[in-house]
Structures are given as structure tokens and as C-alpha cells.
Design goal:
214 residues, alpha/beta, TIM Barrel
């Protein structure tokens, strides 16, 4: 199981951020996802073997394609190894699937050219499951291998997050899902381990400690 760490707290200053990322080193996480302004700081601390991802159009998914492409180019220039795009809410709510596909194609083409992985955030608490299944199927058909069930912007019960991942995986079994609900308790970690997930992303050192506890 992949174990990832994210930090999107806008109230964190530079020194606090650096200290936090240094603390993650002892857990040997598989990737770190940070806000764009902290990509360069993260790269000065993490080894070259720890990929740095960056959220795009976070958290609402309201940018147009050109804006996202420009933003992604900036993130890659600053050193991002992976891009995580919030699904475009307007296209999905209005069932504009052709435009959604074109949006994905442009982003995937750019990231492929730059040798950067692209993932997508879904939002299982906003969209009905029938739509989530369709989103996942479209993404996988266009070369997106990994998704996250939610943006993590709001409190997110890990039990609900894992359940959503399981339901999506039943419909799209080959897509990789990194669950990213909030983890506070040892019981939750035990549930995660039993679920045999592809990956888990947490946003606190306490959660990393629990995941690495024997």
C-alpha cells in the first residue's frame, strides 16, 4: 500500500512548512502533495526519489482549460513531479462530457510531454455515484490511472472515503484509488489495512505514526 502525505494549510508559514516536511522524512512516504507556493521548498528537503505533487484548480474545479494548462506549466517549471486536478464542476454538473474529455486530453498530453504524472480529485460527497462511475471510466479511458475520492478540503470521514473508493473500484476495477479521508484513530488505521487499498493519503504526522505503528 502506498502511503502519501499532503499539506494544504494556507496558514502555515515557510519555517513551519519546512519543519513539517523534514518530519515526514522518517516515515519514507511514497509522495508528498503541497500547494504550488511550496514546491521549491519541498524539493530542497526531500530526496529526488520522493515525488512532489501539486493540486490544480483546488478545491472547487472552476478554472477553464487554458487557465489550468498555464498553471500546470508553472508548477512543472517549479519542480512538480505530479499534477492533481480537481474535476471541472461546471462540465460535470451540466453533463458536458465532450468538453470534459477535451479538458482531460489537453492536460494529459501536456503532462505526458513533460514526463509528469496526472491524477484527478473527485468529490464523492457532491456527485451521485452514477456520475462518479462515469467520471472514473472517462478518466481511465484517457490515460489517468490514479484518482482520489475527494479533495480533502473539508473534514472527511475515512470510513465514507474508503466505502466510496470500493464502490468506484467495483465499476472501474483497473483504476488506482488513493483514499484520503481524515485519520485520527488506531481503529481507523486497522480498518484501512484490512481494506487492502491501493494507497492512503494522510495530512498529519499523527496519522503517519499510526500507519507505521507495528
Amino acid at each position: 500500500m502506498y502511503i502519501e502525505f499532503s499539506h494544504y494549510d494556507i496558514s502555515t508559514n515557510e519555517n513551519e512548512f519546512k519543519n513539517l516536511i523534514k518530519d515526514t522524512l522518517r516515515f519514507n512516504v511514497d509522495c508528498v502533495s503541497v500547494l504550488p507556493q511550496y514546491i521549491r521548498s519541498a524539493k530542497t528537503i526531500l530526496s529526488t526519489t520522493t515525488p512532489i505533487y501539486c493540486p490544480v484548480d483546488y478545491p472547487l474545479g472552476i478554472f477553464d482549460t487554458n487557465s489550468k494548462v498555464s498553471f500546470i506549466e508553472s508548477c512543472i517549471k517549479n519542480g512538480a513531479n505530479g499534477i492533481e486536478v480537481v474535476c471541472p464542476s461546471y462540465f460535470l454538473c451540466n453533463r458536458k462530457y465532450d468538453k470534459f474529455r477535451e479538458d482531460i486530453k489537453q492536460i494529459v498530453a501536456l503532462c505526458s510531454e513533460k514526463n509528469v504524472e496526472v491524477r484527478y480529485f473527485l468529490e464523492y460527497r457532491v456527485y451521485k455515484y452514477e456520475l462518479l462511475y462515469k467520471i472514473a471510466q472517462i478518466l481511465f479511458s484517457l490515460g489517468v490511472d490514479t484518482i482520489l475520492p475527494s479533495t480533502g478540503y473539508l473534514l472527511d470521514d475515512i470510513n465514507d472515503n474508503v466505502l466510496a473508493a470500493g464502490l468506484i473500484n467495483k465499476k472501474v476495477p483497473k483504476i488506482n484509488i488513493v483514499c484520503n479521508g481524515n485519520v485520527w484513530l488506531e481503529q481507523q488505521v486497522n480498518m484501512i489495512k484490512k481494506a487492502k487499498l491501493y494507497g492512503i493519503r494522510v495530512n498529519s504526522l499523527n496519522a503517519l505514526e499510526l500507519l507505521h505503528k507495528d
